[in-house]
Fold:
Amino acid sequence: MRTAEEALALVAQYQKEYFDARHVCWAYRLGAEGEDWRANDNGEPSGTAGKPILGQIVSADLSDVLVIVVRYFGGVKLGTSGLIVAYRTAAAEALAVAEVTERTVDETVVMHFSYEQMNLVMRVVKDFSPAILSQDYEGNEVRMTLSLRQSLVTAFKEKFNINGRTVVRFES
Structure:
């Protein structure tokens, strides 16, 4: 899930499926840095459901995730602290058994260099392990397109700065 619209569509689906539940509380966190988030108590006292669910998502350092907790009334009133513990525990247990897929934020890097520099370039490429998207040869000129983890791009480019001179040209 990558968008708020996708998350809200899933929430609506669960609310429809569990129409007889007392509460369908949820929280989501989206974006590479978890910058887009929302939590909903769905009628529970303010801050007793959505925030504890979101807190577990943040504690697990996850993003692009939605956690929905469906609660039926069992005849015992839990009080605010009991609700917080119940929602926090349910979210933690769900996240503990969830399949987590790690994704990276990648950047496309296009570089130009002479064929004679191929050994140098390939040594650095091997060290950083980017995906090589394409290699084009035109005469003695090589144009290589890579997909590299965004956090490594600056260090990668610095490897081609030798004695204050950049030996490879990068496209902007």
User: Anything to note?
Assistant: The chain is about 35% helix and 30% strand. The longest helix spans residues 79-97. Residues 7 and 66 are 6 Å apart (CA to CA). The first strand starts at residue 23 and ends at 30.
